[in-house]
Amino acid sequence: MQTPVEMAETGGRTVYVKTVAVTDLPKDVQASVPGRKQLYAVHDEAGEQLALVADRKMAFVLARQHDYAPVAVH
């Protein structure tokens, strides 16, 4: 959960970072990431996927670079 200060800084723009099994992705995406077992998806508050990246840290950096406040989904 964001603190009031974080909400003010980001305008309440929260995104969620979650692990995604490559086997759960479309075949064309699977083919583009050979050897990977998981990726990290960044979703907005409505559940729309905004990004899919190979590295968890990169998912958080990417979100912050676009003025979002990332939160991990367990």
UniProtKB/TrEMBL annotation:
The lineage of its organism: Bacteria, Pseudomonadati, Pseudomonadota, Alphaproteobacteria, Rhodobacterales. This is DUF1150 family protein. It comes from the Bacteria. It comes from Tritonibacter scottomollicae (Epibacterium scottomollicae). Pfam families: DUF1150. InterPro entries: DUF1150.
